[in-house]
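Write out this protein's structure.
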Amino acid sequence: MIIVSACLAGCECRYDGKSNEVPEIKKLVLENKAIALCPENLGGLSTPRIPCEIVRINNELKVIGRDQNDYTAQFTKGAEIAANVAKALHCKTVILKANSPSCGYGKIYDGSFTGKYKEGNGFTANILANNGVQILNEESFYSILTNEK
């Protein structure tokens, strides 16, 4: 089973209440080849919600909202739940939303809320990668479509 970011499957669960629907990813869910989840919602955050980015404070990674509040606990909880779901489903591959403080892998927003990027992983992507799960995003997932034919 593949896990996909719910926003990529068309669920309106982004911070701004919109989706990032990718028709091919939505099709995977509709064909029961993938399950959609939103780590931020799983962690207890509502939709819509304050935009958040990852910053380093006192040598510790924190998820801080544009409102300057600390949302690290919710992002951590969502990541842990997503990891437990992946383990229960024997998930080897996920398709996650690029650049997100939960799902970004390799590149995330830099914490300045200016649209700039830095190297790094979102909380969910990081825990899944550390558990040996292959992380793809909405641009790199096409390889699994060609492999299943």
